Amino acid sequence: MGGSIIFSQNRKTPEQRDEGLPSEILLGALGLRRWKVPEGYKEIISYPLKAPFSYAVIAVNEQTSEYLYIVDELPLDLQERVIFTGLQRILEKELVAPRDGQTLEDALKEQVPELLKKNKKLTEGMSPINLNKILYYIERDIAGFGKIDPLMHDIAIEDISCTGFGKPLYLWHRDHENIRTTIQFDETEINDFVMKLVHKSGKHVSLAFPIVDATLPGRHRLAVTYGKEVTPSGTSFTIRKFRRDPLTIIDLIKTESLSEQAAAYLWLLMENKYSAMILGSTGAGKTTALNAIACLVHPSYKIITIEEVAEVNLPHENWVSTISRPGFGMEHTGEIALYDLIKSAVRHRPDMIIVGEIRGEESYVLFQSLATGHGGLCTMHADSPDIALKRLTQPPMNIPHSILSLMNCLIVVKHVKQPSFTEGYKTTSARKFVNISEIRQGGSINEVSHWTPSSDMFNENFENSYLLGQLALGLDLSMDYLLNEIERRQQVLIWMVNRNIRDYRSVNNILTQYYHKPEKLYKKVAESM
């Protein structure tokens, strides 16, 4: 959603709206009162969220260097609030449910003009600019996310969390990390707000069932604990925002999360249907890494993704996304678990099975599918290859030691931050592929890449790769030939980085060209390097 909101049969283009007035003049006409930066804080940056109605201001405490995120939102005056309340009541009575395939936002834009015509007295004497201000709040509160709607429009925010009523919301900002905000809820307000959020996702929450995981419109992930029985501080929630434009392997190379050589190595593994498991703690970037590596899979391969909440976003056309479902009632009748979905996926003859996260009996079914020749990708909570192997062989996973090597590659990702007591301390953190290891026949580990914190360098040894050796043997090629192929792919990736070819569909397009006419693309790359 963008710009000012005009509900009309013939909607104007953004350039024509509000008679072409620039934002600065609009702000003056709307009577925008800027949020005052608190005493002791200094504004460091501000940017639009949904101009001209909401802006973000980030300030820093001059004494403690802590950041504060201020939502600078256009306020309603007394007259506008009366009209807003009246229009809200009319909509509650007369708004018709959206048609199949129609969003609530589109339904509002379609029906509100007619309702305003029927109730002309309500907005009599109101200027179009001030009416747009009221309609912004109508859309925010009915079709949007209420008080946190401005945060949902900030592409720099990864997640939003509330730890209880009367406490400020916190968010994770890509540039400034954990930041306190100026938004908070009272007890009744947060209970009503969370109830509405859960209903938006098509689920139910109550004191009897106070814990809910759900997917919001826009595929954002919601985790809720309701009431004081589970959390004494009151209802809490966390929203992990879904990226419509997911990070790709090119983005990870640009941010130095991994090297170009490691990316080329993973590209070769994915083409040849090798399996890989991404390891890390919560918030380490496992899903980001999973999505980036999955985009390296051959564009023509059939892919089935299996998740509890939809997070994977792929450009492949031959892709089936499946989601587990909790059961109904006390006996969980009709439950569809990850275990069931993986069993079903094998019958569809996929080239690649991608599981969002394994933690139980579904891991055994995944390993059995790898044994039948399917490629596989998944994530698991573990901080090292050793811990991962121990988790896999113990309850509830119970993977026999003899088949551990069916999971060919283990990738450890970490959210690393330099300790404050070290020289050259940086306040920001980074995500790194700190370890890439292969599992040999018999379950032993062969490390091919390791990140060294002191030098911030990747130490790599792909010449002694067990998997490349197995691939060379299976294809009847020399090891040198495969290492040269990795070098060629590395040059293609560097060429893409230099030209900022980074969105997932553009990356997929280049991969398609390389798979079908590798010499032609490589010649183009070599000539321009």
Keywords:
529 residues, nine-stranded mixed beta sheet, disordered N terminus
Description:
The protein is α/β, with parallel strands linked by helices. The protein has a domain of 267 residues: P-loop containing nucleotide triphosphate hydrolases (Rossmann fold, 3-Layer(aba) Sandwich), CATH 3.40.50.300. The protein has 16 helices and 18 strands. The strands form 2 sheets. The chain has a 9-stranded mixed beta sheet. A 9-stranded mixed beta sheet has the order 12-11-13-14-10-15-16-17-18, sandwiched between helices. Strand 1 and strand 2 form a beta hairpin. Helix 15 crosses helix 16. The longest helix is centred in the last third of the chain and has 20 residues. It is globular, with a radius of gyration of 26 Å.
Quick structural gist:
This protein has 529 residues and is of the alpha/beta class.
**At CATH's second level, what is the architecture of one domain?**
3-Layer(aba) Sandwich
Number of strand segments: 18
Determine the fraction of residues in helical runs and give it as a percent range. Answer: 25-40%
> Could you please say which CATH topology of one domain applies here?
Rossmann fold
Detail the poorly predicted runs: 1-25, 27-33
> Mind telling me the C-alpha Rg?
26 Å
Name of the level-1 CATH class of one domain: Alpha Beta
Mean pLDDT: 89
Sheet with the most strands, sense and barrel status: 9 strands, mixed
Question: What's the name of the CATH homologous superfamily of one domain?
Answer: P-loop containing nucleotide triphosphate hydrolases
Terminus-to-terminus distance:
40 Å
Strands ordered across the widest β-sheet: 1-2-3-6-5-4-9-8-7
Shape label: globular
